[in-house]
Every structure is written in C-alpha cells, then in structure tokens.
Design a protein that fits this description.
Layout (H helix, E strand, L loop, with lengths): L3 E6 L7 H15 L3 E6 L28 H10 L2 E7 L7 H9 L1 H4 L11 E7 L6 H14 L2 E8 L12 H15 L3
Parallel strand pairs: 1-2, 1-3, 3-4, 4-5
Bound molecules: flavin mononucleotide (FMN).
Length: 186
C-alpha cells in the first residue's frame, strides 16, 4: 500500500537547496503512487507556541491559536510519513520548522496522556558546511521522544547559494529514498 506523505519544508528559499531535495524525494514517492503534500512553511502564517497548555479541545483545530496550522493539522493526522526538510541554521533546524513542531504539540494534547500519533519520518537537510551532527542528534532525540520510526536522512553539505546543489549526489539519493520509503507500510 502506498503512503500518505506530508513534507514540512522549513527553507524560505523556494528554489533553494532544501527545496531541491524535497522535490526529488517527492518525485520518487509519487512515482510509486504515494500521495504527497508539501507545505512551504515560510509562506504560511504560523505563529510560535504560546505555551498555554490549553490546546487539544477541538480535534480538527487543536491549538488555541487560529492560523495556517489549521491547514497542516488534518494532513498531518492522515499522514503515514512525515518528512522534515530544512537548511542548517546555526547547527540546527530553521526556525520555521521548529515553530511548526512546537505547534504540533496541540495534537498530542488531544490525548489524555499526551501521546503523539505514530508516524514514520525522514530528514532532508542542506548546509554550507558539513556540521550536521548537532541537528542529526536533535532529530534522533525528537523521534525517540515522539515514538516515531526514523526511515533515514539525506544530508547535503557544501551548498550555499541557490542552485549549488545541482549535480550533487544527494539529489539522486533523495529520489531513491522517496521511492524506497514510500512503498513499505508500517
Ligand atoms: C541564518 C543562517 C544560518 C546558517 N547557519 C549555518 C550553519 O550553522 N552551518 C552551515 O553549514 N550553514 C549555515 N547556513 C547556510 C545554509 O545552511 C545554506 O546556505 C543552505 O544551502 C541553505 O539552504 P536553502 O537553499 O534550502 O535555503 C546558514 C544560513 C543562514 C541564512
């Protein structure tokens, strides 16, 4: 059975290096019949978590803040696989992606024990250098905390300007990963 995939693209550069990885991953997954929905987080009206612990009362719109997260929540709920895509900003995820993750806490608040829905995950990252260790460790800790199954990551280093990633091997790796992980169900 092919999967439903949500891609959270935390890069503000629509034609940038992270987006190139996203597009190749999506192309691979769609080729084998997956349903893929990409969210360009920087183009959305999404505010930071208020830390009110008052969410989880409305299943369809679980956060107390009403903004573009309401477009993400239903797709997230239905998704089998969540793709986290981001440039490295100061050795970590971009703020755009971090902000969305904080806001997904409202979905866990719908459960009396704050359980998160079970998902599979993939990480796609681009950076000028090769210092991915901190972000990768953070991702692995996050997946462990959420109880999600990590299906792999693509880390494209040595890319700074838009277009630098052209001809890098990681583009093909992202395409192949999309084809591979899109096919196997949990
Ligand atoms: C605010 C900011 C912080 C950055 N921090 C890092 C960093 O810590 N390490 C690194 O290798 N590159 C860093 N970069 C470079 C980006 O990761 C790099 O340009 C990447 O290719 C951007 O991906 P994009 O094209 O998807 O936007 C930073 C860029 C910006 C704008």
């Amino acid at each position: 059975m092919s999967k439903k995939i949500i891609i959270l693209n935390g890069s503000p550069r629509i034609k940038g290096n992270t987006s190139a990885l996203v597009n190749e991953f999506a192309r691979g997954a769609e080729e084998i019949g997956c349903e893929v929905k990409i969210f360009q987080l920087d183009k959305m009206n999404i505010h930071g978590c208020k830390g009110c612990f008052g969410g989880g009362k409305n299943f369809d719109s679980p956060c107390v803040q009403k903004d573009d997260m309401d477009k993400i929540y239903p797709v997230y709920r239905e998704a089998d696989l969540v793709v986290l895509a981001t440039p490295i900003y100061y050795w970590n995820f971009s703020g755009q992606l971090r902000t969305v993750f904080d806001r997904l806490f409202a979905v866990a608040e719908c459960d009396p024990n704050y359980r998160n829905p079970k998902k599979e995950s993939v990480l796609l990252m681009a950076a000028e250098g090769y210092g991915f260790d901190d972000a990768l460790q953070y991702y692995q800790n996050l997946m462990k905390h959420l109880g999600w199954t990590d299906l792999g990551h693509i880390l494209a280093g040595g890319v700074m300007k838009v277009g630098d990633i052209k001809d890098h091997k990681e583009l093909n790796q992202a395409y192949e990963l999309g084809k591979k992980v899109g096919g196997n169900s949990l």
